[in-house]
TrEMBL record:
Pfam families: DUF6198. The keyword Transmembrane helix applies. Keywords: Membrane, Transmembrane, Transmembrane helix. The keyword Transmembrane applies. The chain crosses the membrane at residues 7-29, 41-67, 79-100, 106-130, 151-172, 178-197. This is Uncharacterized protein.
Length: 210
């Protein structure tokens, strides 16, 4: 029973994370830094945003290892499998947005941005509480948060990595995709929102022990 409930929470959080990222992409006001890096990679490679995000998660895993985060082989396999599913979910949700509706009105785009950032914050809050397997990017976020003893500061340091990737691509492309006010709000606000949602959302796993 415990595993069933935990798995349901876990699937919900990953789906919500991908959906939140797709809302930010659809808003076109600036995506999450890792997603933006994926968008910029997709602009120079013949692959989708989701696949690029999977590749970036591989990079995040390597960086986490360099920060002396220890992983078992099972954790690596599970986390990369999760990254693969997450990337595909983003592609599916972005495709659905294009089929259903992409907002042009600035206020609707701002609403999409607000929804997206909060969805991602709730999703991260949930699966951090579950202590289940995380996305590689989230292992890196946790590593920086522990290093700085603060999610807000840790988020800023962590997100500077994909931003650097986007800027590196800009040097050759002279065109940036997915960077904007939404990116800044995400970087400054995600840690704060995670802290707040950690107080609002408390998953009592002990009730599922039996």
């Amino acid at each position: 029973m415990r595993n069933t409930h935990v798995n349901l929470w876990f699937v919900f959080s990953i789906t919500l994370n991908a959906l939140g990222n797709s809302f930010m992409i659809a808003a076109n006001l600036g995506s999450a830094p890792w997603t933006s890096a994926g968008q910029n990679l997709a602009s120079i490679l013949p692959i989708s945003i989701g696949i690029c995000i999977i590749l970036l998660n591989c990079v995040a895993f390597i960086l986490s290892g360099l920060m002396k985060i220890k992983f078992t082989l099972a954790t690596v396999i599970k986390s990369m499998s999760l990254a693969f599913i997450f990337g595909l979910f983003i592609d599916v949700f972005v495709y659905m947005h294009h089929i259903i509706y992409i907002p042009d009105n600035i206020w609707l785009r701002c609403l999409y941005l607000f929804i997206g950032i909060n969805f991602v914050a709730v999703a991260v809050c949930i699966y951090f509480q579950l202590h289940a397997v995380y996305l590689p990017c989230d292992y890196l976020l946790q590593a920086f948060a522990k290093l700085k003893q603060n999610y807000t500061v840790g988020t800023i340091f962590c997100m500077s990595i994909p931003l650097s990737i986007s800027m590196f691509i800009f040097l050759f492309q002279h065109h940036l995709t997915g960077l904007g006010v939404g990116t800044i709000l995400f970087m400054l606000g995600l840690g704060f929102l995670i802290d707040r949602y950690n107080h609002l959302i408390v998953i009592n796993k002990t009730r599922y022990i039996n």
